Give the backbone structure.
Amino acid sequence: MQRLNLRKYSPELMLTMFRKAASLRNEMMEAGFTDNGGAIHSAERILNILGLLLNYPDIRHINNLKKSPMAEFSVEARKLHQKGERVLIEHVSPLRDLTRRAIAMLGSGKGDNEIRRFVKRHFRLVLLSPEETRRLNRQNRSKISANRLMSAGIRLQPRRIPIVNRPGKTI
């Protein structure tokens, strides 16, 4: 018997909650609190869940990324993973900057569909070796950049997504 993959949260609910968290963050900033102090943390967490719902629907928790056919590994991380060694999850677009930009979009009057498209386009996870993660964070830990991985010398392994050509048969 196949178990249905029921989710606790829907993208629609997460968009509503993101709006509330963004509003609270802005109120906290106006009162003199900072993002590093915690003003942005709820919005970041909610945006992270929304990104998972939109771009990685087959996983229920970010730590299960390694098991997903959608997982992207660096060449180095793939080798480590195959040997049973540790690999780390990294947001290609740093979550803090992604969250700040999404909040700014709300501030400029963008609707849920625009926020959803923005998150779908920019929320991307990769698996890296610990050394690659250190190198990436030294290079650019905080800003969205089209070539963030390349500028840190990180090459991605082509994805191995199974191709199904007829019911029950995977090539």
In short: The mean pLDDT is 91. The radius of gyration is 18 Å. The chain has eight helices and four strands.
